[in-house]
């Protein structure tokens, strides 16, 4: 090349013209490749021609080359910024702010009963109770026999239970039913584990009750079971009191009323004296809430699972879950919990 500076000037003129003429990002990219491409193109050609410049001219020519290259690069950057801001302005023009907004995806929420269950598990977990599960389709041994419920007990009436059709026969040959209580899990846990045991089990139970605001044919119970050497009624009361204080508030008291269950002796109904707000009829004195049934495990139950009632003792309790959830959230009708009406469920988002 005879006069590199002339070639630089020509390159610069053509490059700036091409960049200025680029009307779209695609045009600009084509111009960039032609004039500033690293592998091939006009800049690369110029660079190659530098090889033939006499040695004494090299510093000056090299400097001139770099200056041209920097200016063309700056022109590219400037044009790119111009095109981008023009694009932004066009996009802003295209936005019709009077159109209704697009609804975001609906965010789901945890069902209030699921929350209550999680909270119970957390509280009792802190007291050392492991959460376990049992099957909803049960045999008579686990739902009745091992729980010391005699053959003529009214709870066994086929009209009080959901027995499965005669064709469904359990392992032991007997009929199967949807469990009517979570006390079944006491038996399953004790059959499979030597003492000591300390568990809760929260799950569905089924009874053919007429459905109304406070009854349903399927609901949830929480079963609690603690067995070991020297377990007494005092432990039962302490556990229930600590549980109620964690769930309902510090000042909560627990009382026992005598009751009867075939699987406990003695048996009690446990109530909590709650001073919490939002109960409607609370007042200064607080209000007694029914927690559910409880008691010391009947020796016959311990024997049925192979435990020695002379060596170990234990307590059990069984609470309905829905009532706690309804009280906590001010829900007046149990049916709302299973109807899946999004207007109801959305309130717990
Ligand atoms: N299973 C009883 C029911 O469904 C509730 C119950 C009472 C469970 C006393 C217990 C208990 O573990 O000790 O009515």
Helix segment count?
A: 12
Q: Which geometry do the CA atoms define?
A: elongated
Radius of gyration: 40 Å
What's the β-strand tally?
10
Query: What's the average pLDDT?
Result: 91
Q: What order do the helices and strands follow? A: HHHHHEEHEEHEEHEEEHEHHH
Widest sheet: strand order?
1-5-6-10-9-8-7
- Low-pLDDT parts are 278-282
Spell out which ligands are present: 3,4-dihydroxyphenylalanine
* Proportion of residues in extended strands: 15-25%
Classify the secondary structure makeup into a structural class: alpha+beta
Report the span from N to C terminus.
76 Å
* Helix fraction bin: 40-55%
Largest sheet: 7 strands, mixed
Give the helix/strand layout.
Blueprint: H1 4-21, H2 25-36, H3 42-49, H4 58-94, H5 112-126, E1 130-131, E2 137-139, H6 140-143, E3 162-163, E4 176-178, H7 183-192, E5 197-206, E6 218-228, H8 233-248, E7 253-261, E8 264-274, E9 287-297, H9 299-304, E10 313-320, H10 321-329, H11 336-339, H12 342-345
Parallel strand pairs: 1-5
Antiparallel strand pairs: 2-4, 3-4, 5-6, 6-10, 7-8, 8-9, 9-10
Helix pairs in contact: 1-2, 1-3, 1-4, 2-4, 5-10
The chain binds 3,4-dihydroxyphenylalanine.
Characterization of the model:
With 349 residues, the protein is of the alpha+beta class. Helices cover 41% and strands 20% of the residues. It has twelve helices and ten strands. The strands form two sheets. The chain has a seven-stranded mixed β-sheet, sandwiched between helices. It has a three-stranded antiparallel β-sheet with strand order 2-4-3. A hairpin with a 2-residue loop joins strand 7 (253-261) and strand 8. Helix 1 runs parallel beside helix 4 (58-94), helix 2 runs antiparallel to helix 4 and helix 5 packs across helix 10 (321-329). The model is unreliable at 278-282 (pLDDT under 50). The structure holds 3,4-dihydroxyphenylalanine (DAH). 3,4-dihydroxyphenylalanine binds at residues 181, 183, 223, 261, 264, 292-295, 316-318.
